Amino acid sequence: MCLAVPGKVLSLEEAPEGEPKMARVDFAGVVKNICVDWLPDIQVGEYVIVHVGFALNKIDEKEALETLQLLREMGDIN
Prior knowledge:
Elements: E1 5-13, E2 22-27, E3 30-35, E4 47-51, E5 54-59, H1 61-73
Antiparallel strand pairs: 1-2, 1-4, 2-3, 4-5
């Protein structure tokens, strides 16, 4: 089974020609560099669902926060 985790986009990085677009994404306090190349219209402050380093889809803030709360309750995140 795979788990996709919601995170908030903190910043977008400029990508050299031919390189994937990257972003700094906050996952409940853990910040990672994530490929957002599949979401060309993504903006700072939006939430994304991420699996193995790739942003798969945008989600609204309410849904992201509810999912993070469920993960906390399950003990998967702090």
